[in-house]
C-alpha cells in the first residue's frame, strides 16, 4: 500500500467560483479567529487551548453563523487540526509561531474523508460537497485501484484553482527480494545531484534565470508604495512567476527521480533534516530553492511504488570521509577536490559523498537483509580512527552482485564499450568525471570493478570486472572471478 497524489486544475463556473471564494474567506477568518483565540488564552490566562476545545466551539458557532455553514463541516474541523499541528510544531521548536493569514495568502482547505461521498471524481468534473459539479482537466489518469482519501482545494494567489487528491493504492509488489542496482546520491548546490554512476546534473539554467527575475520583481515590489495599484499589479506578476517556478521545478524533479528509479532498484540519499538546515539562514534559501525535500519524497514514493528500496542515511561527514579508506579529511565546504590524507587518493568531493551515502545505505538495509552482509558494517565516522580500513569484506554475494577484494571502484554502464582498463589505470572518458578514476591502481589484483551489465535497464544485474594482468575482464561468471 502506498499513497499517491494527483493535482488537477479546476475551472469553476462563475457561481461556483463565487461560492469557493466565500469559502476561502471563511477558511481564512476561521484560521485567524482560532489563532487569535489561542494567542489570547495564552496571553490572558497562560492557558493552552486544545483542538477539541476549539472543535466544540466551532460546532456551536456553525449553528448561528451562516457563513461558517458554507464550509463542509469536516473541512472546517480540518483547519483547526492544521492550526493544532502548527502549534505543536512551534512548541517542539521546529517552526515559528503560526501566522495570521493575510488577504493574499494561498488558501487551501481539505475534505479529509473524500471517500465518504463529500467528493466524487468524474471524467471531466469533480463533485465537491457544498460547491457542486466543477469542471476539471484530468491531464493524467487517476491511479488504478486507488481509493480516494483526501481532497484539498487550493486557491493560488494568481487566481488559479487546483484540487490535490490523495489516493491509497494497494500494491502486490512485496518489497525487494534482491538489490541489483543500488545508487548513492549526493545533493548539492552546484550540481543538483551527483550519483555513484558518476552522473552530475547541474541546476537547470532556466530555473536560475527565473530565480534572478524573481529577485528583480521582489525588489520592484518593495520599491512601490504600499497599497498602491502598481504594487498590487506587480505582486500579481510576482505570484504568477512564483507559481511558474514551482511548476518548472516540480516537473524537473519528477523527471530526475523517474530516471533514478528506472535504473536503480535501491536509491540512497543523505538525510536532509530539512527543518534543521532551514534554520541556518545562509544555507536555507538554496536548500529550499533546490527543492531537495521534493526530490526525496518523489524518489521515495516512486521507488516504493515499484517495490524498490528507498533509504536515507545520516549525512555527517559524508563529504569528508574518504569512501575508499575511511579517513576523515578536515576540508572546508569550498574545497571541491582534495587528496585523501589516508590513502592519497584524489577525491572529487561530491562523487565521494555519493559513495559514502551508498556505503552507508547498503549497510543500513543490509541489517534486515542477511544476504547483503557483510558489507561495510562500521561505526559512524565520529568513532573512526583514521587509517586504512577495508571498504568491503571479501565474499559478499547477492543476486547478480558479487563483491570481492577491497574496493568496488565504480558502477557504470559499459554496454557501449567505452571503458578500458590497463594494469595501471582506468580509462573511461565518457563516464567518469573527475580525476579520481585516472589515478593508477596500485595493485590491480586487489581492485575489482563493478560495472553495470547490458543495456541500461532497471534490474539488470551487475557483473564484475577485474583488472588483472594488464587487461580487463568484464562480465565474467562469478566462479571465474573468485578464482582470480
Ligand atoms: Zn582515503
Protein architecture, described:
The strands form 6 sheets. A 7-stranded antiparallel sheet has the order 2-6-7-1-5-4-3, sandwiched between helices. The chain has a 5-stranded mixed sheet with strand order 10-9-8-11-12. Strands 17, 18, 21, 22 and 23 form a 5-stranded mixed sheet that branches. The protein is globular, with a radius of gyration of 27 Å. The longest helix is centred in the middle third of the chain and has 35 residues, at 229-263. α1 crosses α3, α2 runs antiparallel to α3 and α5 (229-263) packs parallel to α8 (292-305). Residues 367-484 have low confidence and may be disordered. It has helices at residues 14-45, 51-64, 73-91, 205-223, 229-263, 274-278, 281-290, 292-305, 349-366, 478-483, and strands at 2-10, 107-111, 119-121, 125-128, 132-137, 146-155, 161-169, 182-187, 191-195, 200-202, 266-270, 309-313, 337-339, 346-348, 396-398, 401-403, 407-408, 412-413, 420-421, 426-427, 447-452, 462-468, 471-473. It folds into 3 domains: 2-169, no CATH class; 175-391, no CATH class; 392-484, no CATH class. It is α+β, with helices and mostly antiparallel strands. It binds zinc ion (ZN). Zinc ion binds next to loops.
Question: What is the strand and helix layout of this fold?
Answer:
Layout: E1 2-10, H1 14-45, H2 51-64, H3 73-91, E2 107-111, E3 119-121, E4 125-128, E5 132-137, E6 146-155, E7 161-169, E8 182-187, E9 191-195, E10 200-202, H4 205-223, H5 229-263, E11 266-270, H6 274-278, H7 281-290, H8 292-305, E12 309-313, E13 337-339, E14 346-348, H9 349-366, E15 396-398, E16 401-403, E17 407-408, E18 412-413, E19 420-421, E20 426-427, E21 447-452, E22 462-468, E23 471-473, H10 478-483
Helix pairs in contact: 1-3, 2-3, 4-5, 5-8
